[in-house]
Amino acid sequence: MNTKIKVAAVSYLNTKPLLYGIEHSDIINDIDIVLDYPSRLAQSLQDGTIDIALLPVAAIPGIPGAHIVSDYGIGADGNVVSVAIFSQVPMEEIETVYLDYQSRTSVRLAQLLLENHWKKKVVFKPAPENFIEYINGKNAGVIIGDRALKQLHNFEYVYDLSAAWKDYTGLDFIFAAWVANKPLTEDFTTRFNAANATGLKHLEKVIAENHFPYYDLYTYYTDNIKYYLDDRKKKGLARFLELIG
Fold it and tell me: Are 70 and 19 in contact (CB under 8 A)?
């Protein structure tokens, strides 16, 4: 009896099109899907409790044998909307930044941009679960995912990290990619890639299944998130890993 391949992702709205394709393709018969915070996926992959993860890219260098196994992931070319520094004061007045505990790539990107792009020295604080309550005065915070989309109209200043990266480097960005740290068969990776692509052909069904009144999901899935990881995005990834290395 063959052991199923354990595939892990996060349950944010940005993953829904990819997961829809996987769940509605015959490859679902060969895998088990696990959902977790992005910050936990790297450890699970390293521990061998999962085989493939939609991994925050900042974690790739720390995992021996890690390699990207699909042409699809979570990328952006400019405004991504769901990864930003939120504040009630302009950038020049920010003194403290809470770092979202759910993310690793977004946190490293924020730190990099604050130092090199905005030229800001701030105090970084690990974010407690209710950290959005503490974003006031000169305290800002990195918020990601669905929570970020819900907060877009609640703060005076929203600094989109993908847009800032584009301004700083001129490059696209990859937030997460499907990564394995062990060999997979060519047949499996081909079918897995095709399953991801399938989900993007059924966005109307994905949107119908995920009622979300805070932001237009069609805009999010077609304008903000760029799921196909083309050469421009891979170039951005290489630059990011070089800068944080």
Answer: no
2 pLDDT above the threshold of 80 = no
Dist. CA 161–CA 85, nearest whole Å? 7
| Nearest-5° Cα angle at 240, 235 to 243 | 125
Average pLDDT on 61-71 reads 95
* Separation of alpha carbons 106 and 170, rounded Å: 18
Strands 226-228 and 139-144: unpaired
CATH 3.40.190.10 for the 5-76+173-239 domain, yes or no: yes
Classify residue 141 as left (phi > 0), alpha (psi -120 to 50) or beta.
beta
Structure tokens at 182: 């062990």
Pairing of strands 31-35, 5-9: parallel
**CATH class assigned to 83-169:** alpha beta
Residue 83's SS3 state is strand
| Fold: same for 5-76+173-239 and 83-169 | yes
Domain boundaries, the chain: 5-76+173-239, 83-169
Helix (H) or strand (E) holding 35: strand 31-35
pTM: 0.95
Write out the E strands in 181-243: 226-228
